[in-house]
Amino acid sequence: MLEKINDIIEEIRGLDAAGQAQVEELRIKYLSKKGLIPSLMGELRNVAADKKREMGQKLNELKTLATEKINELRDKTASTETTDVDIDLTRTATPLHFGTRHPLSLVKDEILNIFAGMGFTIAEGPEIEDDWHVFSSLNFPPDHPARDMQDTFFISREPSDVLIRTHTSSVQTRVMEKTQPPIRIVCPGRVYRNEAISARAHCFFHQVEGLYIDRNVSFADLKQVLLYFAQQMFGPETKIRLRPSYFPFTEPSAEMDISCNICGGEGCAFCKGTGWVEILGCGMVDPNVLKACGIDPEVYTGYAFGMGVERITNLKYRVKDLRLFSENDIRFLHEFDNARSR
Ligand code: DAH
Fold first, then answer.
1. pTM of the model
2. Ligand 1 neighbours (beta carbon < 6 A)
3. 277: helix, coil or strand?
């Protein structure tokens, strides 16, 4: 028996455990009611009377050693892990923070989905562009102020102009150069202008451009498509109005207003008492643009429109300061947790 006790003492000295569950297994093995040490203690009554004392002491020594060792292992493993035993199932769960869609992405997708429902496909083009795609092909006269350094970020000017696009109308040219009509596209993208950053202007923003070219496309088609878009985006009671305007690449050109979606057209501070807010530019594609892109203006006509995603987002979600869109303030972004694009 003495030999057995000494073996167990050796065994216990060398014990180690990887986790609380293992410590518990060891406790059961050595110290529980039916464990090794209590059963050895039970055997004490069979020991010869003259050896009982010595054996009893030895067994107590073993028990103390085992208890200490197990406590030590329990402390050690507790600091490195939380076991099932420690989980408090009544505690409130730690909230998981999911990422959210950026408001500009939500609104851009919503715009694209409305036009996709009318058969428009999505086309994209490069942000780094040349003079031809951004200006010349789109009928900008050589002295047009948009070509000025004050509006456009040029990357280089010699031998040819390399610039970052000031509008997504450049994608029109890229698609028309490669495709014959019918063409029916919407072109989302980021654009850049050399503006001082303020609540109302930024040096980059986002646009969605639209283009439809086919035989017999008329201004009435344009108006109907834009009315449908406005009512899908801002509600079925929304009205539109088209005001004559000027863009080099469209003739005739117009700017479109919608009835103010805050006061319903009554007149408020947001629409400056007019009942209308401007949302986009549009017009019939100038025959010079069709010609420049290899499309016969005698056979085909088309319309185009362009809108700012920030502007639409501002109208939908009342974001007053443009800078919020690019500052990535988590408090602002989380306001859109529950917003969904359709
Ligand atoms: N490119 C114009 C801008 O950046 C927006 C625009 C106006 C696009 C009229 C068009 C259009 O296609 O027909 O201000």
1. 0.73
2. 167, 169, 209, 247, 250, 281-283, 304-306
3. strand
